[in-house]
Write a structure and sequence with these properties.
Length: about 170
Amino acid sequence: MTHLLLISGSTRAASGNTATLRTLAGLTPPGHTTDLYDGLSRLPAFNPDDDEPPLPGPVAALRSRIEAADAVVFCVPEYAGTVPGSLKNLLEWTVKGAQLYEKPVVWIDVANTGRGAGALATLEVVLGYVGAVLVRSACLRTMVTGRDRGPDCTFTDPELRRELAGVWDALTA
Ligand SMILES: Cc1cc2nc3c(=O)[nH]c(=O)nc-3n(C[C@H](O)[C@H](O)[C@H](O)COP(=O)(O)O)c2cc1C
């Protein structure tokens, strides 16, 4: 059994990155589980002075959700040439606690062609810094612009759903 924590780097309600992870969650094979992280907007700005017990509640919750996961999947938009500040903030809250150290991680990049390279490069640098293990065989480069969505905002596009099912295949192989 594999338990995946899914972290979107977008706080936008209609986010394509979050919808991608929601679609991935909907494709969870029997016997496996997912947890779509929903706390990005509630994390306080990282402050080393606050990185001591008792930790701020949202930080303690983030750390336990990472600890409970066998692997973490990131789907992150590009803001100003790199990852959104809120996502970088989340990653900074994991440095001292080492929750991502030796944790298998995967990225799904849904930016349009020719976009998003800065975000992906930064994400890989920071994940490398915290000692996460990138499962490159499960990473997916695709696009979501113009793909059909259902009423619950998940993607119904069969090709995209096949690609996302491939992420599960690679992770559970
Ligand atoms: C503040 C801001 C900065 C952005 N900077 C970039 C950028 O540097 N490069 C890029 O390709 N797209 C940039 N974008 C576009 C977003 O990456 C794009 O709209 C993405 O699809 C948003 O993801 P979401 O639908 O998950 O929220 C930016 C958007 C915002 C709001």
